Amino acid sequence: GETGPRTACLIGSAINGADAFRVAMLNFQEKGPLKISPFLLPNLCANLPSGKAGMLLGFTGPIFSPQGACASGNHAIGIGARMIRDGDCDFVLAGGVDTPILPEIIHGFTNMNATIKVMKGDRAYADPSQASRPFSHDRRGFVLSEGAGVIVLAAEEMLSRHGLRARAEVMGVGWTSDAYHFTKPNPQTIIRGIREAIDDAGLAPEDIEYINAHGTSTPKGDLAEIDCLREVFGKELENIPLSSNKSQIGHTLGAAAAIEDALTIEGMQRGIILPTINHRPDPLFADIDCVPNEARTRRHEMALSNAFGFGGTNCCIVFRGTSG
After folding, report:
1. Which listed residue (214, 279, 290, 316) is catalytic?
2. Is 279 a residue of the active site?
3. 10-residue averages of pLDDT along the chain (324 residues)
4. CATH value of 168-321 in 3.30.300.30, 3.60.15.10, 3.40.50.620, 3.40.47.10
């Protein structure tokens, strides 16, 4: 249609094509090389999440897939917002997708002590829904999940032209890289990324009314994120509710940030802050309001969304909820 040439598609992924590769390997082992699908290599291309969506929807603007591990969704949204600002396009379909629920990936995460190992005596042994518990004293790793999330970005002048209503505005983006360790976060660059997002939005830390935390439910990762937030917000952090959607939906890897951004935006629309469920207080976070166990009714307009990924890639976004 008329918008196709001015529409971009940016859908990132952390582990794109792993399911297609597994099917190909099983076919190779059980049936021989001639049974490997000719579509295997196209399905392994890193740009295919965006490419397939673009072909289906008729987008002929810029199409590529940002690869930012678990921050891919925020990278896609941040890049898309800049492309609109710079006049490269009028619309962007931006987000992330991952389908990592495969034996090899599950065991890989388990063997690197990233995901929770539910042993007898753990509260998740009897109730698996309690396995993901960010900021709790007994957090033991994340719960692997899968899914997809996309957000439609539009230039302001396109709203009235096409009868659209904005639900939020991308106010600021901060992106940094750790140059430090494959999985261990570098506090200084995370702190800088959070500050850059707030500065880019033209705000001060005290203007933020809600924080959608990366909050994966790992012992060290949750503590590192909170320590970075303490450095940025100081004592004011005690007054800012923060929560982790991963307590409810697990860790969807490359899809996580986009899904959580959508939930953050919907929360601003409805005046609701989603909780961190399965919470049992950790003395290390006695000063933190992690919205424990129950959703909260609260009008809020400015939200910070954090996303950090393996390889030391960080992307933080400030959203402003809108009513028009």
Report:
1. 214
2. no
3. 89 93 94 95 93 96 96 99 98 98 96 96 97 98 98 96 96 96 93 99 99 98 98 98 99 99 98 99 98 98 98 98 77
4. 3.40.47.10
